[in-house]
Amino acid sequence: MDALAALRTLLAVRSYQAKPVPDAVVRRILEAGRLTGSGMNRQPWHFIVVRDGETLRSLGALASSGPYVAQAPLAIVVATDKSRFAVSDASRAIQSMMLAAWADGVGSNWVGFSGMDDVGALLKVPPSLDVVGIVPFGYPTKHIGRGQKWRKALREIAHRERYGQPFE
After folding, report:
1. DSSP string spanning the chain?
2. φ/ψ of residue 95, rounded to 5
3. Nearest-CA neighbor of 138 among 92, 69, 87?
4. What is the pTM of this model?
5. In tens digits, what is the pLDDT along the chain, a chain of 168 residues?
6. CA distance 26 to 43
7. How many whole angstroms separate alpha carbon 31 and alpha carbon 84?
8. Which of 22, 129, 139, 142 is the most exposed place for a label (fewest CB within 10 A)?
9. What is the number of other CB atoms lying within 10 angstroms of the CB of residue 166?
10. Using an 8 Å Cβ cutoff, are 140 and 18 in contact?
């Protein structure tokens, strides 16, 4: 799948098959995060791969916006240092990982953003780092209609040279 097709069809997946995600796919997902650009090339991220069922259930209990993490066969918890661009860089890395997974037929959804101190404690993340999110990954339980999403028309959000001048 090319990059634009992945962007066009990526949907949030919140229900996963029990089927494990192969090591080769997990490595590609991590590589996508690792290879993402970062401000001043600081690469402030750390990726914690979680496959243990008990830990996944604990993460699901801690994630008020994503209890479905408990049913995923895999989650990657993203932590960053506390530098100026760390959250932006981590956000870029998370999106890259989600797109790489999607290209391999693996669904995901970003869970959390703030209030992740208990997640950090569970995974022994040092206090010098902030947990930015949990990203559960897995094969969708049902066909979710790739590309079936609504977005504003380009003419509604894109401007030429100055705001208010339509990009057409």
Report:
1. --HHHHHHH--B---B-SPPPPHHHHHHHHHHHHTS--GGG---EEEEEE--HHHHHHHHHH-TT-GGGGG-SEEEEEEE-S-TTHHHHHHHHHHHHHHHHHHTT-EE--B-SS--HHHHHHTT--TTSEEEEEEEEE-BSS---TT------HHHH-BSSSTTSB--
2. -60, -40
3. 69
4. 0.91
5. 788 888 888 989 999 999 999 999 999 999 999 999 999 999 999 999 999 999 999 999 999 889 999 999 999 999 999 999 999 999 999 999 999 999 999 999 999 877 799 999 999 999 999 999 999 999 999 877 665 678 888 889 999 999 999 898
6. 19
7. 23
8. 142
9. 10
10. no
Q: How far is CA 46 from CA 90, 93, 105, 122, 157, in A?
A: 9, 10, 24, 15, 34
Q: Residue 77 CB: number of other CB atoms within 10 A?
A: 26
CB 88 within 8 A of CB 40: no
Radius of gyration of the chain (CA): 17
Tokens 């890395």 found at: 93
The residue length of the chain stands at 168
Give phi and psi for 136, each to the nearest 5. Answer: -75, 145
Per-residue confidence (pLDDT) for residue 147, from 0 to 100: 58
